[in-house]
Design a protein that fits this description.
By secondary structure, the protein is of the alpha+beta class. It has two helices and four strands; from the N terminus they run βαββαβ. It has one domain: Alpha-Beta Plaits, CATH 3.30.70.
C-alpha cells in the first residue's frame, strides 16, 4: 500500500449537497478499490490564481489516503467522467 495525497477542486456554483455528493463519491472510489482514507480536509471556497473555464473560484478538498498502485488510475478515470470537478492532482508521498 502506497501513501497518496489528492487535492481536487469542485465547481463552486453547485449546491452544498452536490459538493458533498462529489466528496462522498471520491471517497467511495478510493475505498471500493482497497484504499484506506486517513483524512479528508475541506478547505472551502478559494479564489483561483487565474480564471479556469471563465470561473474565478472553486471548492477545494484535500484527501490523504493509502491504497494499492492501481487506485490513482481509477481516480483519474473518475475525474474525467465527473462534470463537477474542475482540476485534481495526485501526489505519491
Amino acid at each position: 500500500m502506497n501513501k497518496y495525497e489528492l487535492l481536487y477542486i469542485v465547481k463552486n456554483d453547485i449546491s452544498d449537497e452536490a459538493k458533498q455528493e462529489v466528496v462522498d463519491k471520491m471517497e467511495a472510489v478510493i475505498t471500493s478499490n482497497g484504499g484506506e482514507i486517513e483524512s479528508t480536509d475541506k478547505w472551502g471556497t478559494k479564489k483561483f490564481a487565474y480564471p479556469i473555464d471563465y470561473k474565478t473560484e472553486g471548492y477545494y478538498v484535500l484527501v490523504n489516503f493509502s491504497a494499492p498502485a492501481n487506485v490513482p488510475e481509477e481516480i483519474k478515470r473518475f475525474n474525467r467522467i465527473t462534470d463537477e470537478l474542475v482540476r485534481s492532482m495526485i501526489i505519491k508521498k
